């Protein structure tokens, strides 16, 4: 795992969403190699704030650039990796953002390798608001590993019957895919529906959780 601090990437429109106006917040990021390709993980002192699919060099660079604008500051060096401020280093303090990043990396590695069924890393919900946040929190809290829910049913769950299309938009703007499991939202007619990370990625995640059969090769 490499913790990166320099200028870098923007997030695709599918993963972007409305943001709360806040003061600038310190953050850090890393790219995790995974069975569904490289994932960029960004954390603040509040928790995991962003997961970006297909985070190769160019995509990662754009994502960091976009997050720098949205969070109000460039990512900072972290004392846990030998680049913190003298005061932090002297105190031996590890910023919460660094601890959250380590937790996110460990838990995602366990999810892909060992079948971790529930993420406990704190989440920073500030990159989504309103209806989208309500839907995503319902999804995170009540649709567990190995289960699926329809777009319409999820709309019903948040008190907006008939808002299946709006739920689809919320899934497309999810800043925390995999951890907030938009891959578990499917069409009522049996189709798997769309996915910001691509349909093959969605099939892989559903197969990992035993919802679809594993591919033969």
How would you describe this protein?
This protein has seven helices and six strands; from the N terminus they run ββββααααβααβα. With 217 residues, the protein is of the alpha+beta class. The strands form two sheets. Strands 1-2-3-4 form a four-stranded antiparallel sheet, with helices on both faces. Strand 3 (39-44) and strand 4 form a beta hairpin. Helix 5 (151-157) crosses helix 6. The chain starts with a strand and ends in a 9-residue tail after the last helix. Residues 1-19 and 78-90 have low confidence and may be disordered.
Topology, element by element:
Blueprint: E1 3-4, E2 27-32, E3 39-44, E4 48-52, H1 57-71, H2 86-91, H3 96-114, H4 130-142, E5 149-150, H5 151-157, H6 164-172, E6 185-186, H7 199-208
How would you summarize this macromolecular structure in one to three sentences?
The protein is of the alpha+beta class and 217 residues long. It is 36% helix and 11% strand.
| Number of separate strands | 6
Q: What order do the strands of the largest sheet run in, or round the barrel if closed?
A: 1-2-3-4
Would you tell me the structural class of the helices and strands? alpha+beta
Could you give the order of the helices and strands? EEEEHHHHEHHEH
């Amino acid at each position: 795992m490499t913790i990166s601090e320099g200028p870098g990437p923007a997030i695709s429109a599918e993963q972007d969403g409305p943001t709360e106006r806040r003061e600038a917040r310190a953050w850090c990021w890393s790219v995790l190699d995974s069975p569904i390709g490289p994932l960029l993980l960004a954390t603040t002192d509040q928790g995991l704030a962003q997961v970006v699919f297909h985070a190769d060099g160019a995509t990662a660079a754009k994502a960091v650039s976009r997050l720098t604008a949205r969070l109000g500051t460039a990512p900072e060096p972290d004392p846990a990796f030998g680049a913190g401020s003298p005061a932090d280093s002297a105190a031996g303090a590890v910023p919460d953002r660094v601890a959250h990043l380590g937790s996110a990396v460990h838990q995602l590695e366990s999810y892909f390798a060992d079948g971790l069924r529930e993420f406990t890393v704190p989440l920073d919900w500030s990159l989504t608001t309103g209806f989208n946040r309500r839907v995503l929190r319902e999804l995170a809290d009540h649709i567990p590993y190995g289960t699926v829910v329809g777009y319409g049913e999820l709309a019903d769950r948040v008190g907006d019957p008939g808002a299946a299309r709006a739920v689809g938009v919320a899934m497309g703007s999810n800043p925390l895919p995999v951890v907030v499991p938009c891959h578990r939202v499917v069409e009522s007619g049996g189709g798997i529906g769309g996915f910001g990370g691509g349909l093959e990625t969605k099939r892989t995640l559903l197969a990992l959780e035993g919802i679809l059969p594993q591919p033969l090769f």
